[in-house]
Amino acid sequence: VRATRGGEEVKAYVPSMGQIFLRRFQMVTQFRQAIEEGQVTVHYQPKVALPGKQVLGVEALVRWQHPEFGRVDPDEFVPAVEAAGLVGVLTSFVLDTALDRVRRWLDEGLRISVAVNLSVRNLADADFPSRVAESLERFGVPGELLTLELTESGVMQDPERALPILRGLSALGIELAVDDFGTGYSSLAYLRQLPVDQVKIDKSFVFGMGTDLGDLAVVRSIVELGHSLGLTVVAEGVEEDLARDQLEAMGCDVAQGYLISRPLAEDRLEAWLQARTVRSLDRTSEAVLTL
Ligand code: C2E
Ligand code: MG
Ligand code: MG
Ligand code: MG
After folding, report:
1. Is 71 helix (H, G, I), strand (E, B) or coil?
2. What is the ipTM of this complex?
3. pTM passes above 0.90
4. Fewer CB within 10 Å, N- or C-terminus of the chain?
5. Whether the Cβ atoms of residue 287 and residue 110 lie closer than 8 Å to each other
């Protein structure tokens, strides 16, 4: 692509459709092996209580360091993996990695929950709840320390099929969260019928709330709606003190975002927690931020 800016010719690299297709094809065919070779890892982003600074849990976010393409974002490879019917492999990998992490925290006396993102395809798999149950049992993690995040559009795509699966998951005592809330098209009435425990306000509204009254109104109404339905309300994309203060004033329960921490590789998360936690001797208290 060529364009001119101030009389100067500027060239930008725009991959052709063929190149995009080839790259996606390569990625999906290499995915299983990439997991085996350790190219695919899980990073964790802390979530803290509002008000206060108690670390309640972390969200597991997948990362792929590809030998040829470098770091590939989940927004690119997750849809490709889904389309190739390989999402079961992805979800199992992330779930097992995350539960293994929670197990080791429990052994150190820390109760930190982990949230794992689901794909629409997981909600079409009738065996999925029993696979989650098997994983919890294998790692000896109580259901209440696992949250599964699903998007509104994921549920709305085929509610008839998703609902029994959600009920099966809910019966395991885990938390279910609706992710990216506010961006989809689900009705409030429908949300009431789902066995969900949490709503996560989409980051686009949280980014805008300091300067845009419309975004502020959306955030406020999600907090009110969520609470009136008895749900825990989580805000993602909290980047600034102002947003955190506004959310706290509205009564939003949990904050997640770069202000608190970016997603961290496991060793960096450990260092982050070590610097901030009071580890109890009786092995029962939760991680508490001391700063
Ligand atoms: P999500 O589940 O809504 O995750 C939150 C995304 O927002 C993450 O992007 C996180 O890094 C980013 N984020 C959090 N706080 C801030 C902030 O303050 N500012 C900004 N600019 N961004 C923030 P990430 O890791 O790139 O993941 C993107 C999406 O990919 C996720 O959105 C989720 O839908 C999907 N994804 C990630 N990991 C998995 C996975 O293991 N399985 C599945 N099925 N999907 C995944
Ligand atoms: Mg999520
Ligand atoms: Mg989100
Ligand atoms: Mg998302």
Report:
1. strand
2. 0.97
3. yes
4. C
5. yes
